[in-house]
Amino acid sequence: MAVEEQTLYNTTQPVAPDYRRVGQRLTISNRLVSKLGFWFHRQSYPTGILVFEIYRKSNEELLASKLWGNAVDVPSGLPPTYLEVTFDEPVFIDDEVYICAYSTGTSDSDFPIMHRQYPSVKPDEGYVQKNGTWEEDDFWDTAYRYTYIVPPLAIDTT
Predict the structure, then answer these.
(1) Where are any strands of DSSP class E within 1-158?
(2) What is the second-level CATH architecture of the domain 2-148?
């Protein structure tokens, strides 16, 4: 297994009512993605859940989704904690995607907080958030990690 990551962070973004999905736009080429994670801490006591997702950018098709757990179980202290999910089945990706965290049951004062970096450090990638439509901001990068394998080449034996 191999890892792709951006682990720097110096600021935060709440996963709150205004932006229930926050994450990163990036291209994943010819990989079977098995795990996805982000750095988080918690503000107060959110009542909902925290889910990690991968969407195809071109048509917003949901490619993978996995419940991390209850948002209130995200640790509240700093430094942030790396949270990760393992998908039930690895998902093949060869496209530009949005990797993100989604939360329900948040309020203006109770929410999980994702960590990100300013200025951006990953070329051709950038922070994304969704409230109705996806909004991209290439001046920021979300702190993330995904685990993958490169699928074997198909060998024609005919």
Answers:
(1) 2-6, 11-14, 21-43, 49-56, 62-70, 81-103, 111-117, 126-131, 133-137, 141-142, 144-149
(2) Sandwich (2.60)
